[in-house]
Amino acid sequence: MTHILWPLITLQILMGAFDTLYHHELTERLAWRPSQRHELRLHGVRDLLYAALFLALGWSEPHGLLALLVMAVLLGEIVLTLLDFVEEDMSRKLPASERVAHTLLAVNYGAILMLIVPLLVDWAGRPIALAPVSYGPWSIVATVAAIGVALFGLRDLAASARALRLGPGRAGDLLPALTAPQTVLVTGATGFIGRRLVEALAAAGHQPIVLARDPAKAARLAPQFRLVTRLDQIPDDTRIDAIVNLAGEPIADRIWTAARRRRLLGSRLRMTRDVVRLIARLERKPAVLVSGSAIGWYGLWQDEALTEFDGGKACFSRRLCDAWERAAMAAERHGVRVVRLRIGLVLGVDGGMLARLLTPFEFGLGGRIGHGRQWMSWIARDDLVRLIGHVIATPSLTGAVNATAPEPVTNATFVRELARALHRPAVLPVPAVLLRRLAGDLAAELLIGGQRVLPDKADASGFTFRHPTLRSALAAMLGARLPHAAAGHHVRRRYFGGRMRARGLSLRSSLAVLAARHRLSDDRLLR
Length: 527
Known about the structure:
Mean pLDDT: 87
Number of helices: 19
Strand order of the largest sheet: 5-4-3-6-7-9-13
Shape: elongated
Low-confidence stretches: 481-527
Radius of gyration: 27 Å
Structural class: alpha/beta
Distance between the termini: 86 Å
Number of strands: 15
């Protein structure tokens, strides 16, 4: 083999490793996306073919029919790559860096073929044999690469089979509270929560109206919805039964610089004010506006249990959520019931915080953050969608409503349960001081700080969580089996039985629960 061929092969190996580790594992997290099972299968087969090629060409010269077999494998790799391109284009939007990487890989592969095919043609004319050779360090490189791509190929095939167990379940079963057909306007419909909500609405026979700035993203949503790119495209005489406002830039994907804080606040206020203006001009007002907020409204309280009737402590997330909620409350002037949904950490395998943790934890690189005693108030995404439907269908629910599971956990418990569900160790803690230096207030408020938030109003209004405990939620999401998974109503009964005594809730919170059980809103109670 020529001297230039092995450097080209090595370059192909390095670019392929970058594409796999950076794109497939770190940014796109393909192994944990149920929608990508066909792509994972193609990757797995192709990687195993690459492993065979690296070993065969690194230590031998295939002659006769064996050379023809190698050419067939090279041709098969081209076919698999073309199928992979088609599958990727149909199932996901590739980032620009991944498209560039694929282009460079294709160009380099073409150069390799131009050099290796004449050699294979020459070898094919010889008697069949597998002549042993050694190319020194290049053979070592080929062996290491063969082992690496073989391991990732087997992993991708296993992940493809696992993807069938990761499916989120029937979306049409998530909105039993909405018995009559509803027309629901959803902003933020292409986000992690909005996608599932729109899917559930459409599957249950309701009529979603989707506000999406990017029609290409909306095209990937469930069918049977009406798309608008601006709210002024909705005529005044449109019948809208409910509005769910989830729009806003992601809060945890970048450091909170001054410019970033303005964008986070501006994106939420602009959309919420646009929604209120829409309500003002509609001839028939919607019955309810469910406006997104977050448990960051409460600020940082350490171990104290918080309900909808507790106050907040000053910090950026508190100011952000408070301004967002106040903008939504303007809709009350038009006779619309407003529910401010204070959402906790939303868990799901195809988005949100859990999706970012699955890959490092799967490779045994997980661990607690800092001391691990900070509280994490979480909710399964499907339970959140069900709660939104429950809120729409329950006229007595108004004001702030906590969207968190009834059993918050500490960070150490969360890490232990996730590692247990994945059958991996989690012994690499992340120092809090390092996070503070890297991410500043974002780390202090979202990662190192925390809130122990309880869903008093949801529980008192009769809502039952399908996944009240973290263990049951992770088991359902990751396709694991629980030997004794507690049913939702058993956990809920235990939760109510000793909640006020064991958790030391305030008298005001206890009265609030009793009032909500008699279908009183928080506004009436506080008067």
